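1st attempt posting a full record on here, be nice pls
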Amino acid sequence: MKNFKIDHRTNNGFEVLDLFGELDAHTASELEDALKQLISHKKSNIIVNFQQLEYIASAGLGVFMAYIEDVRSIGGDIKLTNMNDKVFNVFDLLGFPTLYDIMDDEASAIKKFLNEMS
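the predicted structure (as tokens):
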């Protein structure tokens, strides 16, 4: 089994979660914990960087579905960036691009957040 890892950092006041490896039923709880922690601290402008994520299973997608309402209810959003084609196709099949902003890169996500705030 490939390792899964999440790094948390801040970029221009936005919370960034960098995902590494494979996000599946075994590792989805780690993403869940990371999102819960941000929400509990009222950190609601979240960017998830998929650049190093090789694979996502439906359990991983479920985590995003489970927490997007919580994040939006405290005035924030989750923007998704840097997906490879394989990962994007999974999101695309399930209609995620209509529910989430899926951006090419972090800078685009930050710009979108700033535009929404002004």
